[in-house]
Amino acid sequence: VQLVESGGGLVQAGDSLRLSCVVSGRTFSINRMGWYRQALGKQRELVAAIASGAGSFYYADSVKGRFTISRDNAKNTLYLQMNSLTPEDTAVYYCNADPQLYSWGQGTQVTVSS
After folding, report:
1. At 87, is the secondary structure helix, strand, or coil?
2. How far is 96 from 102, CA to CA, in rounded Å?
3. Burial tier of 58 (Cβ tally within 10 Å: 0-12, 13-18, 19+)
4. Could you tell me how far CA 59 lies from the centroid of its own chain?
5. CA dihedral 1, 4, 65, 114 (to 10 degrees)
6. Rounded to the nearest 5°, which phi and psi values hold at 39?
7. What are the φ/ψ torsions at residue 8 (nearest 5 degrees)?
8. Beta bridge partners of 113
9. Which of 71, 48, 70 is nearest to 61 (CA)?
10. Which of 30, 61, 93, 113 has the fewest CB atoms lying closer than 10 Å?
């Protein structure tokens, strides 16, 4: 299984970004999936997760109300809509199963300037 994240960039506080993660292989649709992030000098953390059938969700308190996770099982793709970004959201963002199952992809850098 390969994970390919995209959609990051340099934005200003208050802006929005939409991240995408394409997952190769046939197991995407059966797994709970999540978006993780790792800021410089900090441990990787789970910020959002979605059940295989998109019937349940998890959001870290720090992103609740601003981020929305979604998935398209027909396209093996996971999304993260990020609104009202703040400098504290600056990190490399990764997707993986929740809990982690696969090797990490390269991630996508999100940088939010104040």
Report:
1. helix
2. 6
3. middle
4. 11
5. 150
6. -85, 160
7. -70, 175
8. 12
9. 48
10. 61
Provide the pLDDT for residue 14. 98
Reading the chain (114 residues) residue by residue, the pLDDT tens digits are 999 999 999 999 999 999 999 999 888 888 999 999 999 999 999 999 999 987 899 999 999 999 999 999 999 999 999 999 999 999 999 999 999 999 999 999 999 999
Select from 110, 83, 80 the least CA-distant residue to 14: 83
CA atoms of 36 and 45, how far apart (whole Å): 5
3-state SS, 5-68, equals: EECCEEEECCCCEEEEEEECCCCHHHCCEEEEEECCCCCCEEEEEECCCCCCEEECCCCCCCEE
Partner residues linked to 43 by β-bridges: none
Helix (H) or strand (E) holding 79: strand 77-82
